[in-house]
Design goal:
The complex is a heterodimer of chains A (about 500) and B (about 240).
Chain A lengths: L6 H19 L3 H23 L6 E4 L10 E4 L1 H21 L7 H23 L3 H19 L5 H32 L4 H7 L5 H18 L8 H8 L2 H26 L7 H21 L4 H21 L3 H28 L14 H4 L1 H15 L5 H15 L3 H27 L13 H19 L2 H15 L1 H8 L1 H8 L1
Antiparallel strand pairs in A: 1-2
Chain B lengths: L1 H22 L10 H10 L6 H9 L1 H21 L21 H23 L8 H18 L7 H25 L23 H25 L9
Classes of the chains: A mainly alpha (about 500), B mainly alpha (about 240).
């Protein structure tokens, strides 16, 4: 098997251009071929994760030019972990959705093209070693996300997509300005070389460009108050797309934010981490409070998702190795659990356009498997043992305690209670209310059920035996914390020149 | 009041940006990337137009990304724009202007082939003279725009647009993948053909081929976007 990180980008692009031609050959190919490609990438991730080690990242040249002259892809324990997570999750989201029949053929074709490009763009953001290339991939990711938000061609969908597009365009401009400041002061776009040259950049330019990056990537990572696009986009997009916003898009956004703040800018101890911590705290508290008041199931999940993103920012904002570890663990759990919740909720609200929580009475009997999986996801996301969410929340609490941030610790605990209230409110309706007689339900197809059950098995498996994942997380955390190592492995010649 | 707050925030942002950019010395020789490109582009790639060498070879991966962004814009356009079209006349209500005059129509017909040739010239000679795939493609699209505004009944066949778009995109990615197999460093988008002699049409190896593919793709996509904008086909919810 050919395992080369470039295939993460090249294969989906190739397929996206190929799909319109396949449609003319035999229509089912449009649904099947993207799945085969995603399956290949998922298996490739496993192969590559076995090859990569703490001291041997996989660095792929593009166009035959070594860094910093050309663009390169950097597959390390950290970036590789996130890329693998995205590619494997993308395969299961495809498995969930490949048979869906709600739309006409032309639209189904667009759906698969856009979904492939969303995945490829997100993996590109994670793997690239070049800051401008990251911008290009952020563009690919966001453009596919706008189009997918408006997928059901309703007025609400178009409005949500337009809002998303405006905020996203603003984000792109900020990102481009930030990049051009860095280029103007250093003359390079390679992330490792930027990190190396950063001490030469005057403090003022550094702060301005860091803030531009922070705002731009904060929009992608759903940071408050820049997340106005998220509730609408999450509630209007098709169910599997909402799952991939939480599991794929937001993960790429937070990765970029973390990579930029940890590796490129040297502002960690000059307030960069504190900014991340404070913004994370505000994001978490506000989102969870708003989530409690939502009537719409999808919007509730969207706000809960933002709350989790806040939690991740807090973890990385601690700036310690334990904090990074906890942040990565929450990223993993959030990707898996929130995807399961969105996928299950798509069937719970299949026939209601308003997606109201109060319409869910008695679904526990009507849709036993889906409701059970939703309940399992809810238990896991609030952090109850024996599910995987428990371990990640615990590791975050330990990390905050180690950093002597008692206030943060207390806030996280208090917010967890809010989380429990609003998730259990939904569960109460599912299981302890009588069903409305005339209600129409849609039974999940076999492939969606399989996909959801696999995610549930991951949640229980990691919950019962966290050692499955902790080794990978420790490697990834060590890799992110080792900035000098990152520079040295990517541009060894230039690195040794500066030492002499 | 709200506008005043927004305005003052924008002023603060503008001040800091201006201040930061004023501090950067543009054009200063930093000996990092620029010199390397200026030196390597004629010597190793035999490409006279350094900008093209950077866009298609050194940073060809970005160009592939940008081509994809354009592809997405063309694909997503139809989903984001609400479809409006009158049920009675079958025409877009926004397009109520009268038919263009005979002079415009005749001139349009006359100019169209010339514009096509200019566009093709620009992208075929991308590695020798200023311009390239994006510029050439945009020129070709203006030719179609001319026909779209002169003849109301002119329609672009979406079937052909899709074919050209897909085949051009596949060519670009395939050239990239061939680089992994045939290139000296086995890397994506790498040149694997003979680079030829500087200033000749056959110089630059795969660069010219990539730019021709980009030219076709950009032309097809921009034409498709223009056609979507002026001629929305589906019946919508406006009567």
């Amino acid at each position: 098997m050919v395992a080369n990180p470039i295939l993460y980008i090249a294969l989906p692009l190739f397929t996206a251009f190929l799909v319109p031609l396949l449609a003319k050959l035999w229509k089912p190919l449009v649904r099947i071929v993207p799945g085969l490609v995603l399956a290949y990438l998922a298996i490739m991730s496993i192969v590559l994760m076995q090859q990569v080690g703490p001291d041997k990242p996989i660095i792929t040249m593009i166009a035959g030019w070594k860094a910093p002259w050309g663009i390169n892809l950097v597959f390390t324990s950290f970036s590789g972990f996130i890329a693998s997570l995205i590619s494997i999750l993308a395969f299961f989201i495809w498995l969930y959705s490949f048979k869906f029949k709600k739309v006409e053929f032309d639209d189904a074709q667009k759906y698969f093209i856009l979904f492939m490009l969303l995945t490829a763009g997100s993996i590109g953001v994670v793997l690239t070693g070049d800051i401008f290339n990251m911008f290009v991939f952020v563009e690919i990711t966001s453009l596919s996300a706008y189009a997918l938000t408006a997928f059901y061609k309703g007025r609400d969908g178009a409005e949500a997509a337009f809002k998303f597009l405006l905020i996203g365009a603003f984000s792109s401009i900020m990102l481009l300005l930030g990049i051009s400041i860095l280029y103007a002061y250093t003359g390079t776009l390679n992330m490792a070389q930027l990190a190396m040259l950063m001490p030469q950049v005057p403090m003022k330019a550094k702060v301005v460009s860091f803030l531009l990056f922070f705002v731009a990537l904060g929009i992608e990572a759903e940071m408050f108050p820049l997340n106005g696009w998220a509730p609408d986009a999450y509630s209007q997009a098709p169910g599997p797309i909402a799952a991939s916003f939480a599991g794929i898009l937001a993960k790429a956004g937070i990765y970029a934010l973390i990579r930029v703040s940890y590796t490129i800018f040297d502002l960690g101890n000059d307030g960069g981490f504190d900014l991340l911590l404070v913004m994370g705290l505000i994001t978490m508290v506000v989102s969870e409070l708003v989530a409690m008041r939502q009537e719409n199931l999808r919007r509730m999940l969207a706000y809960s998702s933002m709350g989790q993103m806040g939690l991740i920012m807090i973890a990385f904002g601690l700036g310690t190795k334990e904090g990074i570890y906890a942040g990565l663990f929450i990223m993993f759990n959030h990707a898996v659990i929130k995807s399961l919740l969105f996928l299950a909720s798509a069937y719970l609200v299949y026939y209601t356009s308003r997606k109201k929580i109060s319409d869910l009475d008695g679904f526990g009997k009507l849709l036993p498997v889906t409701s059970l999986l939703f309940g399992l996801g809810a238990f896991a996301i609030v952090g109850l043992p024996p599910f995987s969410g428990f371990w990640s929340k615990l590791s975050l609490l330990v990390a905050t305690a180690d950093s002597h941030m008692e206030f943060v610790l207390a806030t996280i605990l208090a917010v967890s209670v809010i989380e429990i209230i609003y998730y259990f409110r939904v569960l109460g309706r599912l299981y302890f209310r009588k069903a409305n007689k005339e209600i129409k339900v849609r039974k999940p197809t076999w492939n969606s059920t399989v996909s959801m059950i696999v995610l549930a098995i991951v949640i229980i498996g990691v919950g019962l035996h966290p050692d499955f994942i902790t080794g990978l997380l420790h490697n990834a955390a060590a890799d992110l914390a080792d900035k000098a190592g990152y520079i040295q492995k990517i541009i060894p010649d230039l690195f040794s020149q500066t030492l002499n | 009041m709200r506008k005043l707050v927004i305005l003052s925030l924008l002023l603060v942002l503008g001040y800091f940006l201006l201040n930061t950019f004023a501090g950067a010395e543009f054009g200063k020789d930093r000996k990092v990337l620029a010199n390397y490109y200026l030196e390597k582009s004629p010597s190793e790639l035999q490409v006279a137009n350094t900008v093209t060498a950077i866009v298609v070879n050194f940073r060809g991966f970005d160009t592939l990304g940008e081509v994809t962004v354009l592809f997405l814009a063309a694909t997503g356009m139809g989903t984001i724009l609400l479809r409006r079209r009158s049920k009675h006349t079958g025409l877009n209500p926004m397009r109520t202007s009268p038919e263009a005059s005979k002079i415009v129509q005749a001139a349009g017909k006359l100019l169209f082939p010339a514009i096509m040739i200019l566009g093709a010239y620009v992208f075929i000679h991308g590695h020798l003279t200023p311009g390239g795939g994006f510029q050439g493609g945009a020129i070709i699209a203006t030719g179609f725009l001319l026909l779209l505004i002169s003849y109301r009944q002119f329609k672009v066949e979406h079937k052909y647009v899709t074919w050209i778009e897909s085949l051009a995109g596949l060519t670009f990615v395939s050239i990239g993948l061939l680089g992994i197999v045939l290139g000296p460093h086995n890397s994506f988008l790498e040149n694997f053909l003979n680079v030829g002699t500087l200033n000749e049409l056959t110089s630059g190896g795969v660069i010219a081929l990539v730019y021709i593919a980009v030219g076709f793709k950009v032309a097809a996509e921009l034409t498709g976007i223009l056609d979507t904008l002026v001629n929305i086909r589906e019946t919508g919810d406006i009567d």
